[in-house]
Design brief:
The complex is a heterodimer. Chain A is of the alpha+beta class. Chain A has five helices and six strands; from the N terminus they run H-H-H-E-H-E-E-H-E-E-E. Chain B has a seven-stranded mixed β-sheet with strand order 2-8-7-6-5-3-4, with helices on both faces. Chain B has a three-stranded antiparallel β-sheet with strand order 9-12-11. A two-stranded parallel sheet of chain B has the order 1-10. The C terminus of chain B is likely disordered. Classes of the chains: A alpha+beta, B alpha/beta.
Chain lengths: 168, 403
């Protein structure tokens, strides 16, 4: 779908801050509030805006930590449907938080979240590796999140405004 | 000592006036929870690739002097950059100097072209350093005042009126600090006619060139006939978010560069080596980041200009830099009173326009190089302040029509 420059500008402003009000976006993009509202509605209807996720650092909340693993999966593609069928069987599991088809040494990359290591082990051995076309799996547990979707966890030094209060 | 200490201070130093900005800095620096729209520098930290390149050069031991004019590799990049972005050709071997900030480039330019008593026309409102730098070089600064009626653009008539037999050069800075005003090619060409007619030089401070939002930026050196008469000054501070690096550049016909290089080699020797390596990376691989910062400023400019007009402060739409320069005349206050009362009542720091020259009286400089939430809060506070002065928000007369 081709967007005009105004729609594109609105989309980029939302990408940075989806909580900006229609009024603010209109002022920033030099358009009317109504155009902003209509554009957002259209982009949502077209599923160009898919959702407005919130990035949470759960490690800071007691008792809410989770275990994240990334799994490389080799798959025999199926005649006629390729990888899509196998992918669908996998991404329907709610514990799968992302799934990509990759080029290179393996085919599918899965991110999975669980409460315990056992839970993830159970998923790999009972659900994933028993799927017909899955040839092999390699599981990597995530040790620490430094940066996710462009956001540096624990802020990073660059967040601080070090400028003097008035300069020429 | 035989005398009072003042005896030992030179007359030159005594004659220099302290910058009006200093007073505001002292006032605001002592307060808590101030939202500052008084900062004349980007709110971005230097892109990481540039910082990383400087760190690497230190790790590799690049700690000795470079050539006076700067690393040839950097001058080659500068030459390519000026050609690519502004269509001007400078030989990296003898037409470019890497300076310690654009400020030093200005200093070199004035010292190299002025004889005692020569006059330099300065388009005002203007950056606070220009007039003192001219004076320090033995010249005489002559203000060419512009006004809000035509968006602080300088006209050929205004320039011509200020020209005398002693006029040596015209100093231009567009996009401008503090007004944000930029001039397009046609407007610069009209100025060029005057320059030609009166046989003058132009010192063109193009430090905000990368931050031009509505029209394509035109370098004064690219105007037909002006290359030979222009000392082009630019730098890394604003466009690349590198203010603290103090790295500038100047480019000019080689006879001028030769003269400036003589002064530079005695006063400074060369710009810091490791930072020059960072600058090479800046020019090679930072295109996308520069563009994305530029887009971010443009959005904030749109927001701030319209909101200021909506809350009752008349404000033209500046074509560049990251400043807006609204009129505060409706409040009946002077610029200094306004800035001081706003700071005391609402803890928002702005810079009174009069520090940039007489024609800045009745205006304030607000920098929008601050995060959107901070800008929103600052404008809310300013609106509250204006209401106490009897100025009410007028939403119906929204500012969109002015854009």
């Amino acid at each position: 779908m081709k967007l005009n420059s105004e729609e594109l500008e609105i989309l980029k402003i939302i990408e940075e801050n989806h909580k900006a009000s229609a009024e603010t976006i209109a002022l920033m993009a030099l358009t009317s509030e109504e155009t902003v509202k209509n554009t957002i509605k259209k982009l949502e209807d077209e599923k160009i805006i898919m959702s407005y996720p919130t990035l949470i650092d759960w490690t800071k909340v007691d008792g809410q930590e989770s275990i994240i693993a990334m799994i490389d999966v080799k798959v025999t593609p199926k005649r006629g449907v390729g990888f899509d069928d196998v992918a669908e069987r996998i991404y329907r599991f709610p514990e799968v938080s992302s799934l990509y088809l990759m080029s290179g040494a393996y085919d599918l990359s899965i991110t999975i979240e669980g409460k315990t290591m056992n839970q993830i082990a159970a998923f790999v051995s009972e659900k994933l590796s028993t799927i017909d076309n899955v040839v092999s799996t390699t599981t990597h547990f995530m040790l620490k999140k430094y940066k996710h979707d462009g956001v540096i966890f624990d802020g990073g030094a660059d967040d601080k405004d070090r400028r003097m209060v008035v300069t020429p | 000592m035989k005398h009072d200490v003042a005896y030992y201070i030179s007359q030159t130093a005594k004659d220099l006036q302290p910058s009006g900005i200093r007073k505001f800095f002292d006032l605001a620096a002592g307060m808590k929870d101030v939202i500052s729209l008084g900062v004349g520098e980007p709110d971005f930290v230097t892109p990481w690739n540039i910082r990383e390149a400087a760190i690497l050069s230190l790790e590799q031991g690049s700690t000795s002097y470079t050539a006076n004019a700067g690393l040839l590799e950097l001058r080659e990049e500068i030459s390519a950059y000026l050609g690519r972005r502004f269509g001007v050709a400078y030989n990296p071997k003898n037409q470019i100097i890497v300076t310690v900030g654009a400020s030093q480039a200005l200093d070199l330019a004035f010292r190299a072209i002025l004889n005692q008593g020569d006059e330099v026309l300065i388009v005002e409102p203007a950056f606070v350093s220009y007039a003192p730098l001219v004076s320090l070089a033995g010249g005489k600064p002559i203000a060419v005042s512009t006004s809000a009626e035509n968006g602080f653009k300088v006209t050929p008539e205004q320039i011509e009126q200020a020209i005398s037999e002693k006029t040596r050069a015209l100093l231009l800075c567009f996009p401008n600090n503090p007004t944000g005003t930029s001039l397009n090619k046609a407007e610069l060409m009209e100025i060029a006619n005057i320059i030609e007619k009166h046989d003058l030089l132009v010192v063109s401070d193009e430090i905000y060139a990368e931050l031009t939002y509505d029209e394509t930026f035109t370098s004064f050196a690219a105007i037909p006939g002006m290359y030979e008469r222009t000392i082009l000054i630019n730098g890394f501070s604003k466009g690349f978010a590198m203010t603290g690096w103090r790295l500038g550049m100047l480019a000019a016909p080689k006879e001028f560069v030769e003269a400036m290089l003589k002064i530079f080699q005695y006063t400074t020797l060369c710009a810091p080596t490791m930072l020059q390596y960072g600058a090479i990376e800046a020019l090679r691989n930072t295109y996308h980041e520069v563009e994305s910062m530029q887009r971010s400023y443009r959005r904030r400019r749109n927001y701030v200009v319209q909101t200021l007009n909506n809350i009752g402060l008349d404000c033209h739409t500046p074509g560049g830099a990251f400043y807006v320069f609204p009129s505060i005349r409706a409040t009946g206050l002077t610029s200094e009173q306004f800035a001081e009362e706003l700071l005391m009542q609402e803890k928002v720091a702005v810079v009174p326009g009069n520090v940039f020259g007489e024609s800045g009286e009745g205006y304030i400089r607000c920098s929008y190089a601050t995060s959107m939430p901070q800008l929103q809060e600052a404008l809310k506070r300013m609106q509250r302040f204006l209401e106490t002065k009897g100025i009410m928000r007028d939403r119906e007369a929204g500012a969109l029509s002015q854009l």
